[in-house]
Amino acid sequence: MRILATGCTGLTGRHFLRATEGGHEVVALTRREPPAELEPLADWVVADLASPLDRSALPESIDSVVHLAQSERFRELPERADDVFAVNVAATFGLLDYARRAGASSFVLASTGGVYARSDEPLRESDPVETGDFYFRSKHLAEQLLKGFSEHFRTVVLRPFFIYGPGESQLLIPRLAASVRAGEKIRIEGERGLLINPIYAADAAAAVESAASGDAQGVVNVAGPENVSISGLVDLLGELLGGIPEVEHSGEEPGVLLGDTSRMRSELGAEPVVGIREGLEALLAD
């Protein structure tokens, strides 16, 4: 199938290109020229999603659209809320309208598990949403846009939980790894810290490919096979790096942010295979 994909120079996007190599034809939108190692894996179109979508540069017909891109300015709120809104919301609408006109049969959006209201139990796709943060609100707005196009093609909203892997420095787990490596003090809420089930980027990419080419519809969590606390992550990073992390505990336990993966397995047929230790070893080896 022919897939128009955004965010292909990002962490999940790079693995998505490798997952689709030889099986699908990918046209990749990128804000800047792709790195040399990725160039052979797709037909590239340079387009800044913070600007209105130029459809003249896109294929006249497409089988699926996969929107993985997110604003590079997501840590610069509220000053760069314009960029976050443009990429997360306005670009989603532009791509949805393009997909309809280009005859797509599916549209996959990468949202985030951060849109859920906190719970003491693993979060199911039917659980309430609570979006106080501007970034999470923008992601949920994008999800709502897909509902308006569901009569035209199959729509899938993926809500990933803490994707990690080599080549990314801004996300939670790579930042923890950098802090442990640098000997910086790490502050953890309560004794345990947040309990999460992070997913390795290659496993997340496999779920994205299944969402585009399969028959799933609606919201699907994307999370890893193991639960681990922030404290446990820091301890394991220290063990793998051969040091003892400097940790400061304060406040109350923050609870859990776990994604229930029943639908991921049943609807996408996706079964994460990379465990925490193996994933961290790959991250640290980069």
Describe this structure in words.
By secondary structure, this protein is α/β, with parallel strands linked by helices. It has a domain at 2-163 and 201-223 and 259-273: Rossmann fold. It contains eight helices and 14 strands. The protein has helices at residues 11-20, 81-101, 134-147, 172-182, 201-213, 230-241, 262-267, 276-285; strands at residues 2-6, 25-30, 43-46, 64-67, 106-110, 154-160, 163-164, 186-189, 195-196, 199-200, 218-222, 228-229, 247-250, 256-257. Strands 3-2-1-4-5-6-11 form a seven-stranded parallel beta sheet, sandwiched between helices. α2 (81-101) runs parallel beside α3, α4 (172-182) packs across α6 and α6 (230-241) packs across α8 (276-285). The longest helix is centred in the N-terminal third of the chain and has 21 residues, at 81-101.
